[in-house]
Amino acid sequence: MNNNDVLKKLRVALMLRDDEIVDILKGVDFNISKSEIGAFCRREGHPKYMECGDQVLRNFLNGLVLHLRGTKENPKYPGNVLKSGPTGPSPKKSPPKKGKPFYPKKDKKKS
């Protein structure tokens, strides 16, 4: 597993968009563009694929820690950060209905 795989798996697992990854990296004073993040997440054979270096992954992981835990002066609870999602708190969903599902009856042909 290489650095690109780690970055892609974290991106999917934490439901991060490219602009959120850029913001996380800016939090540790590491500037990178959205197009470079997209290049890291491409397939290896793609013409615009770029190898994710150790420095990029290290800064992303350090920024991710600050993003999820906060700083010593302003701590955060990681569960609250993950629940809030990329666009704020998720809307409350109605619970699924209990009981048997409704299936309309089919007309049986007599032969």
Tell me the number of structural domains. Answer: 1
| Spatial shape | flat
Structural class given helices, strands, pairing?
A: mainly alpha
Task: Give a short account of the largest sheet.
Answer: none
- State the helicity in percent bands: 40-55%
Work out the strand percent: under 5%
- Give helix and strand order, one letter per element, not per position: HHHHH
Task: Catalogue the unreliable spans.
Answer: none
Number of helices: 5
The oligomeric state of the chains shown is single chain
Cα gyration radius (Å)? 22 Å
For the terminal residues, how far apart are their CA atoms?
A: 62 Å
Average pLDDT over all residues: 84
Strand element count: 0
Explain briefly what this protein structure is:
With 111 residues, the chain is mainly α. Helices cover 45% and strands 0% of the residues. The radius of gyration is 22 Å and the shape is flat.
